[in-house]
Amino acid sequence: MVILAMDTATDQLSLALGRDSGEVLASWTSAVPKMHATLFHPLLDQMLAAVKVSLQDVGAVVVGVGPGSYTGVRIAVTAAKVFSYTLNIPVVTVSSLEAAAYAARAHQGLVIPAWDARRHAAYCAAFRSDPYEQAWERALPDGRREFSQLVQEVLEVAREDEKVWLLGNSASSIVDFFRQKGEDGIVGVYDERTLLSGELIFRVGLRAIQKQPDLITTQGMWESVHDLVPNYVQMAEAQARLLPDRQGG
């Protein structure tokens, strides 16, 4: 079965095609910010043509639901819902943060993806990686945290002598907060880029499917597609500014 993976939660537009056997047919990424809506369908058409696959061959969609750009994340989620309705196929949702973190799965320790959320805060989560045991588990939920709060929560869940790997455009700033706690010896920067490829979305989605094979059946998934929404984590700034005005009115 062919699986289509997609994500538009960051400045990267990420697409991939793979099989449920784990074979990756194609993985395409565009790093042109604020052009996801314009480029999504042309790039998808090109990718499908390049590997001689049609949309009718796709048996399931994996989509990153954020957190991330309030406007951007909706593009892939909306497309996934449209494909589900028109092709009568299931949608499997994954955390965009987890997919980014999965790039560092070969490293032992806690992997912390952290994307700038402004005002000394980050969209972040934590995952425990053990490549020797081929283990991968969540240690902290997705959320928006101030840097100091993130460091405190990481220190609470970290095991003795466990290494902490940061990735994303807030990584270096967060290292400074570990230093203030005297814990900079346990932390390292894996990469300051987002590293969110279509293949990573596919890999994390495939893990979910393999752990729960019934996810890939239409029965039981169809109703949830109606309620599928991005994980915004927080309201958009414009909404947040309007709320007090409405409450006051």
How would you summarize this macromolecular structure in one to three sentences?
The protein has 249 residues and is α/β, with parallel strands linked by helices. The protein has helices at residues 36-50, 72-87, 96-101, 147-157, 171-180, 198-211, 222-226, 237-248; strands spanning 2-7, 13-19, 24-30, 58-64, 91-94, 109-116, 121-130, 135-146, 164-167, 187-191.
Please give a structural write-up:
A five-stranded mixed β-sheet has the order 3-2-1-4-5, with helices on both faces. A five-stranded mixed β-sheet has the order 8-7-6-9-10. It folds into two domains: 2-96 and 196-244, 2-Layer Sandwich (Nucleotidyltransferase, domain 5); 110-191, ATPase, nucleotide binding domain (Nucleotidyltransferase, domain 5). Helix 4 (147-157) crosses helix 5 (171-180). By secondary structure, the protein is of the alpha/beta class. It has eight helices and ten strands. It is globular.
List keywords for this structure.
Nucleotidyltransferase, domain 5; 28% strand; 10 strands; five-stranded mixed sheet; 36% helix; disordered C terminus; 8 helices
**Radius of gyration, in angstroms, nearest whole number:** 19 Å
C-alpha termini separation:
54 Å
**Largest sheet at a glance?**
5 strands, mixed
CATH topology tier name of the largest domain: Nucleotidyltransferase, domain 5
Please provide the count of β strands.
10
Classify the oligomer.
single chain
- Topology as a string of helices (H) and strands (E): EEEHEHEHEEEHEHEHHH
* Beta-strand residue fraction: 25-35%
Secondary structure: helix percent = 25-40%
- What is the CATH architecture annotation of the largest domain? 2-Layer Sandwich
- The overall pLDDT average reads 88
Q: How is the largest sheet built, in terms of strand order?
A: 3-2-1-4-5
Please identify the structural class as seen in this structure: alpha/beta
Write down the overall geometry. Answer: globular
Count of helical segments? 8
CATH class group of the largest domain: Alpha Beta
Low-confidence stretches: 235-249
| CATH level-4 homologous superfamily of the largest domain | ATPase, nucleotide binding domain
Number of domains: 2
